[in-house]
Amino acid sequence: MKGMEVLRRSSVFAAEVMEVFDRSPTDKELVSQAKTLCRDYIHSRLNRAGIGWSKPEHGVSAPGSALGEVSSVLLWLGDELEFLRPNVYRNVARQLNIPVASESVVSDAFLAVAAEIFSTGEYLFPWRPFSKTS
Question: What keywords appear on the UniProt entry (predicted)?
Answer without folding.
Answer: Membrane, Transmembrane, Transmembrane helix
